[in-house]
């Protein structure tokens, strides 16, 4: 096994500190990314008090939280696996379907 390479200890005075929360970053760019993502909520929901740093996050929020009030052009997905415990369940987000499919495959792989 190769020896573990020691990392030099950084002087925190050289780091870039977030004025909002005090988090420290190695570069100004990392600090700016943090500030834009965590503290600048430029996209406000028309239906509630929620605000988001990214428009994509706002759109996902509207599709999932306010799905009854907003007409959705997105289609619902269903699990394609035979033997799925919940074959009629609908998923409006592909990432949720993907997690479900992994669980289905794991359940099918376990011996009964």
Automatic annotation (TrEMBL):
Keyword tags: Metal-binding, Nucleus, Transcription, Transcription regulation, Zinc, Zinc-finger
Pfam families: zf-C2H2
Main localization, broad class: nucleus
Top-rank taxon: Eukaryota
Organism this protein belongs to: Clohesyomyces aquaticus
Subcellular location: Nucleus
Name of the protein this chain belongs to: C2H2-type domain-containing protein
InterPro entries cross-referenced by the UniProt entry: Zinc_finger_trans_reg (IPR051061), Znf_C2H2_sf (IPR036236), Znf_C2H2_type (IPR013087)
Biological process annotations from GO: regulation of transcription by RNA polymerase II
Gene3D superfamilies: Classic Zinc Finger
Domain called C2H2-type: residue spans: 16-44, 43-71
UniProt GO cellular component terms: nucleus
SMART domains: ZnF_C2H2 (SM00355)
MF GO annotations: zinc ion binding
């Amino acid at each position: 096994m190769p020896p573990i390479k020691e990392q030099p200890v950084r002087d925190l005075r050289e780091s870039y500190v977030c004025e909002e929360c005090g988090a420290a970053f190695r570069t100004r760019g990392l600090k700016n990314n943090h500030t834009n993502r965590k503290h600048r909520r430029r996209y406000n929901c028309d239906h509630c008090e929620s605000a988001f740093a990214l428009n994509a996050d706002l759109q996902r929020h509207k599709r999932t939280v306010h799905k009854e009030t907003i007409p959705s052009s997105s289609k619902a997905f269903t699990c394609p696996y035979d033997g799925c415990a919940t074959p009629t369940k609908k998923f409006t987000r592909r990432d949720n379907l993907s997690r479900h499919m992994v669980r289905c495959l794991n359940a099918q792989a376990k011996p009964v």
